Amino acid sequence: MKNQIQLQIKVPNQTRYLSLIGRISEELAAQLQNYSGDREALANHINVVLTEALVNAIRHANADNPDEEVEIRISVTDEELLLQVVDHGSGFDLAGITHSPATAGDDLEDHGRGLYIMRSLMDSVEYRQIEGGNILEMRKRFH
């Protein structure tokens, strides 16, 4: 693959780093050579899903523990964009959160809104346990 980008970023478990990750995602979208769609919309989508994933990792998985960190991995190939967010928490069942705003009512206010947004903006969203934590993977294919 001639056009490949790989970034690995570790940030302290603090929400103040969200804007930095947002700026990185906007610059990344501008650099994607094989993306023929709306780059501004893609930048916004990357920013939104990474922000949601990071807030979930910081607040829920790592329980706002300032001694923890969150790892963001971004991989771009000619075919797709892969975003990974790694945390060190106990994890949760992604399949157990299947509702949408139209069917969930007020329950979505408490949990699930971020995952619904991620699923809406990305082509696939997977979450699994790995040694020492969990990994959330979000993919966007370049059609």
Please give the number of β-strands.
5
Task: State the low-pLDDT regions, or none.
Answer: none
State Rg: 15 Å
Let me know the largest β-sheet.
5 strands, antiparallel
Q: Tell me the helix content.
A: 25-40%
If strands are numbered along the chain, what order do they take across the biggest sheet? 1-2-3-5-4
Along the chain, the helix and strand elements come as EHHEEHHHEE
The N- and C-terminal alpha carbons lie at a distance of 17 Å
Q: Averaging pLDDT over every residue, what do you get? A: 84
Protein topology:
Blueprint: E1 5-12, H1 18-31, H2 39-61, E2 69-76, E3 80-87, H3 101-104, H4 107-110, H5 113-121, E4 124-130, E5 133-141
Antiparallel strand pairs: 1-2, 2-3, 3-5, 4-5
Helix pairs in contact: 1-2, 2-5
Please tell me about this protein's structure:
This protein has a 5-stranded antiparallel sheet with strand order 1-2-3-5-4, covered by helices on one side. Strand 4 (124-130) and strand 5 (133-141) form a beta hairpin. The mean pLDDT is 84. The chain has helices at residues 18-31, 39-61, 101-104, 107-110, 113-121, and strands at residues 5-12, 69-76, 80-87, 124-130, 133-141. With 143 residues, the chain is of the alpha+beta class. It is globular, with a radius of gyration of 15 Å. The chain contains 5 helices and 5 strands.
